[in-house]
Amino acid sequence: MDQGTAPENDQPANRNPRDLSSAIREIQSMQRALDIETALERVRSRTMAMHRSNELHEVSELLYAELKTLVDFSDFTSCGYIEVDEENHVQHAWMTRPDGTSIGDHGLPLKGDPVMSPGKVRGVHLLLNFDYSAGVNF
Known about the structure:
Blueprint: H1 17-48, H2 56-70, E1 80-85, E2 90-96, E3 102-109, E4 124-127
Antiparallel strand pairs: 1-2, 1-4, 2-3
């Protein structure tokens, strides 16, 4: 057999359709992982390039745009960043509107919400609020 020729049973015409379906699913899964990694890298790069916290409104808009490319559901409404200031009992939020534009920096009282309670969350965090009951897979 010639070195550059594949064995006859490895030719696409001789492959089992189930094997091809499995290969296609695997390639699609790999592409999805690459898409997610690329979106995360765009957001990470923009975040690392920030010089001031007032740039978080721009980063929240980018985060929204990247998530919209990855998540396919119509009721995706908002995303952003929240910084918890435990000393002053306030949360500083940089969130987006349903159209993806920034709401800007706004404060929220820190009152012991079970998701954002003092002592459990420190620093700046990304909040993703998905309704998993709707069957969203991310």
